[in-house]
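HUMAN:
Sorry, I am quite new to this. Are you able to go through these amino acid letters and fold codes? The numbers rather puzzle me.
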Amino acid sequence: MSDAKPNTEEILHRLSDVLDILKRISEDLQDISESLKTTKLTKAPTTTTIAEPPTQVARTTRKGVEDIKMMFTKELEAMLIFEEKEDFIKVKPRQYLGSDNFSKIASTIREAGGEYISAGKDSHFRIPK
């Protein structure tokens, strides 16, 4: 890593990217809020149900790294590192993605049931298996 400080234009570009992401998050939260307001909450039944253990069919539908890689274009896939963990697939950027690529990747991850984990330098996407 170099000690060179980013210039003003680069900082403004990065702030613009962050603002775009925050705007999308705000819109998602507003949609969720409106959805919850329109949903009638009903009292849950007091009967207890016992869940059946997972079947062999459920095990074969688990996602693997190759399944996740196929969801991306070659260009986007080349920007990402895929790591298989016990219960999830960790997808981490190799480089700065920019707002457009981040948005495309985040959308694909959400479609797969995943989420973005903001953790500074260890920020990544996580997709449950």
Notes: Strands lie at 80-84, 88-93, 115-117, 124-128. The chain has two domains: 1-40, 60-129. The two ends are 35 Å apart (CA to CA). Residues 1-40 form one domain.
